[in-house]
């Protein structure tokens, strides 16, 4: 029998960026918060010996253990989904800080076009621009409404950046100046400027200078060591939940963080979430944590699975398009081009996760789509993240994958290769979704999450168009050999692509077509908030973290308002039928 714990004001399921933000804001307001994290605790001191590529990059020491927690995958409904037995396409984090520990730190604001993509597309191109099988819609909030929360996240994280003429408009400058430029980045900037484009230094959570945020937390200046992605920062120079919001929450004395705590059910009574049931993964003991407000702040896939597992919300049905939980799963595509330089060498081993330059001229609706049969686009960037010896062996096509010739070409091109890559937007499709697998179960007897996903015609056309632009940029940069990225016939769960999964618990203004309102409060359970990229209606042409942070700060404000007013829906749905 589960042990019932003392009731708290708020319980979060996960202690990463979103869980940390909720905890910091609510405890500062005087509320008691319990944070449940299924992984272990960790802080900057745990990363002192972090520069071990084999352990952290190849064997994913900071990531989710798929022998204990995994998903099943298939390309379409006619296939049988099989379990993912090794991490590949994406790398969910595990432990305190979540993926915010091992991220690169590239921090963008989604464009105004993203948040009102359906109405803006219809107004400019007509309602038939894409077929009915694409389920994109407005997010239920405008950029103007969300902009203060973007800035709030940037202030807490100390983001380093500069004005972007093609990006989302800003009312305030970045908290810290942009990172240093390099000969590699200058080469990209000069080439794109010559092409009439608008390059900028990438906004970065690897800070350009020492910084104290509004909560009094100090973030150190980046050392440009080249060990960001898949690694924690031993200098405390990469903004993460562990050096910002989590210490802020802990210093209030009102935050109780419980590690090794696997939540297996959200408890619902009378149409409201009243707490969660969790298992201590060390002792095997089971507990119930009652709370006035439950906040799911886990990874995209886990947020969706926990709702389905707890029978909260209407599961999405691809056959008739009804239901919302599991709907609008989106990923990203990666148009791009690699350039091989015969007579030039670059210091590619140096860098930082967000050391890069970007053009947004082909992102969102910044270019005319009238004669194109796709929408949106992507940010086009060159990054200098630090080329490590095991995982970085880019060689020209035709090179053997092993043996003396492979070694020769790997050594020759290790510091003679540059890549220009775009983060291509992903538009939701009726057949791309998440549900519970009817066959495979986890250790606790609960169904695994099943992911059904494949590339669409929209993806292919966008990929082809942006890849040609990337090839033109690489040509202007003077590469001797240019190889353009190719899109496979079908999406595969390996190799690594990005960790930018979105959707499943999407936000909106209508309870019939969305799971949460613009405070990320469930339409079907007013005391339950679901915070993260699971709320994204589609995936844009950027890293999602900046937008996740903004939505988390708005959700924290909404939770406080909910508690102060004693309950109730914070936003009324355009469709009243699902509201009590």
Automatic annotation (TrEMBL):
Gene Ontology MF terms: flavin adenine dinucleotide binding; oxidoreductase activity, acting on CH-OH group of donors
Gene3D superfamilies in UniProt: FAD/NAD(P)-binding domain
Keyword field: FAD, Flavoprotein, Oxidoreductase
Domain Glucose-methanol-choline oxidoreductase N-terminal residues, every copy: 217-330
Domain of life: Bacteria
InterPro entries cross-referenced by the UniProt entry: FAD/NAD-bd_sf, GMC_OxRdtase_N, GMC_OxRtase_C
Residues of the Glucose-methanol-choline oxidoreductase C-terminal domain: 428-552
SUPFAM superfamilies named in the record: FAD-linked reductases, C-terminal domain, FAD/NAD(P)-binding domain
Family, per entry: Belongs to the GMC oxidoreductase family.
PANTHER family named in the record: LONG-CHAIN-ALCOHOL OXIDASE (PTHR46056:SF12)
Entry protein name: Gluconate 2-dehydrogenase alpha chain
Organism: Aquisalibacillus elongatus
Taxonomic classification: Bacteria, Bacillati, Bacillota, Bacilli, Bacillales
């Amino acid at each position: 029998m589960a042990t019932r714990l003392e009731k708290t004001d708020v319980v979060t399921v996960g202690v990463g960026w979103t869980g940390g933000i909720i905890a910091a804001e609510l405890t500062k307001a005087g509320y008691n918060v319990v944070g449940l994290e299924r992984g272990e605790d960790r802080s900057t001191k745990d990363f002192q010996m972090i520069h071990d590529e084999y352990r952290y990059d190849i064997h994913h020491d900071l990531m989710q253990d798929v022998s204990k927690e995994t998903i099943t995958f298939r390309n379409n409904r006619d296939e049988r989904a099989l379990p993912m037995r090794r991490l590949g396409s994406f790398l969910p984090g595990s432990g305190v800080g979540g993926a915010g520990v091992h991220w690169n730190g590239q921090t963008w604001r989604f464009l105004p076009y993203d948040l009102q993509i359906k109405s803006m597309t219809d107004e400019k191109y007509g309602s038939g621009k894409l077929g009915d099988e694409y389920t994109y819609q407005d997010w239920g909030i405008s950029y103007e409404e969300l902009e203060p929360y973007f800035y709030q996240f940037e202030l807490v994280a100390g983001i380093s950046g500069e004005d972007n003429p093609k990006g989302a408009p800003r009312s305030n400058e970045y908290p810290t100046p942009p990172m240093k430029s390099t000969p590699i980045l200058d080469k990209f900037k000069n080439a794109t400027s010559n092409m009439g484009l608008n390059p900028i230094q990438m906004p970065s959570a690897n800070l350009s200078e020492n910084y104290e945020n509004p909560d009094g937390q100090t973030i150190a200046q980046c050392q440009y060591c080249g060990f960001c992605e898949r690694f924690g920062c031993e200098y405390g120079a990469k903004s993460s939940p562990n050096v910002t919001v989590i210490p802020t929450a802990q210093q209030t004395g009102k935050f109780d963080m419980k590690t090794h705590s696997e939540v297996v059910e959200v408890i619902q009574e009378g149409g409201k979430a009243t707490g969660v049931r969790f298992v201590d993964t060390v002792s095997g003991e089971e507990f119930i944590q009652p709370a006035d407000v439950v906040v799911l702040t886990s990874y995209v896939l886990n947020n969706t699975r926990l709702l389905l597992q707890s029978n909260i919300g209407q599961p999405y049905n691809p056959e008739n398009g009804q239901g919302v939980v599991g709907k609008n799963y989106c990923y990203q595509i990666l148009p791009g081009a690699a350039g091989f330089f015969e007579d030039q060498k670059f210091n590619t081993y140096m860098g930082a996760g967000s050391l890069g330059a970007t053009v947004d001229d082909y992102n969102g609706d910044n270019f005319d789509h009238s004669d194109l049969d796709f929408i949106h686009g992507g940010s086009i960037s060159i990054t200098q993240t630090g080329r490590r010896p095991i995982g970085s062996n880019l060689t020209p096509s035709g090179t053997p994958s092993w043996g003396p010739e492979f070694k020769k070409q790997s050594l020759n091109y290790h510091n003679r290769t540059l890549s220009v890559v775009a983060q291509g937007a992903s538009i939701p499709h009726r057949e791309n979704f998440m549900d519970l697998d009817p066959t495979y179960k986890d250790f606790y007897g609960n169904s695994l999450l099943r992911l059904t996903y494949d590339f669409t015609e929209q993806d292919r056309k966008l990929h082809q168009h942006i890849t040609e632009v990337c090839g033109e940029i690489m040509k202007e940069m003077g590469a001797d050999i240019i190889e353009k990225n190719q899109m496979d016939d079908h999406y595969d769960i390996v190799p690594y692509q990005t960790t930018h999964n979105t959707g499943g618990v999407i936000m909106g203004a209508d309870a019939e077509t969305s799971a949460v309102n613009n405070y990320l409060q469930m339409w079907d359970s007013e005391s339950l908030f679901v915070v993260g990229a699971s709320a994204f209606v589609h995936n844009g042409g950027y890293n999602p973290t900046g937008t996740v942070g903004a939505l988390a700060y708005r959700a924290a404000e909404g939770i406080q308002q909910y508690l102060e007013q004693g309950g109730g829906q914070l936003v009324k749905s355009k469709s009243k039928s699902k509201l009590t």
